Amino acid sequence: MSTALTINPLRKGDLTSVVSIEKSVYATPWNIEHFAEIVDLPCGLGLIACVDPGEVIGYAVGWVAADEAELANIAVVAEQRGQGVGGRLLREISVTARSRGADRMYLEVRRSNRDAQRFYANHGFDRVGRRSGYYSGPREDAVVMAVDLVKREG
Question: SS3 of 85, please?
Fold first, then answer.
């Protein structure tokens, strides 16, 4: 990546860019209202990755409930994958979740998405369960993964 990468809080003005990335990545993409709800939630987590001069190239969203966080969605534009953007977003959202009291972060990933499972495993996530028929379009089981954020701090 030739330009500087910055991680910033997700704002409503970023939602059009985020939805564009979402549609390019996911078979059943969230719409703008889903992301707007996350921005509006007091427990919501939302970060964007930008390159100068402010072009959004990735995002991560989720929420914190009590001492647990959920990573709901993370994506990076195709031409920027493999350059550490996703890892940086994942680290930053983990730090943000921890600062809001989360001890553990969970996520679901399609059972067939081995690349994503490897990515999460490389960032400390372990398989902790399965959700039958969790995904639609096409219907598929989810692998549940989690990371201990307290151990990550040390």
Answer: helix
**What is the torsion angle, in degrees rounded to the nearest 10, for the CA atoms of residue 9, residue 12, residue 16 and residue 19?**
60
Q: What is the DSSP string of 36-83?
A: HHHHH-TTEEEEEEEETTTEEEEEEEEEEETTEEEEEEEEE-GGGTTS
Instruction: List pLDDT tens digits, range 14-29.
Output: 999 999 999 999 888 9
Rg for the chain, CA atoms, rounded: 15
What is the spatial distance between Cα 49 and Cα 141, in angstroms, rounded to a whole number? 29
Quick one: which of 55, 47, 129 has its CA closest to 95?
A: 47
Residues of the domain holding 93: 5-153
Kindly report the pTM of this predicted structure: 0.91
CATH code, domain with 133: 3.40.630.30
Measured distance CA(144)–CA(111) in Å, rounded: 9
Q: Confidence class of residue 137 from pLDDT cuts 50, 70 and 90?
A: confident
- Residues 6 or more apart whose Cβ sits within 8 Å of residue 152: 94, 98, 124
Number of structural domains in the chain: 1
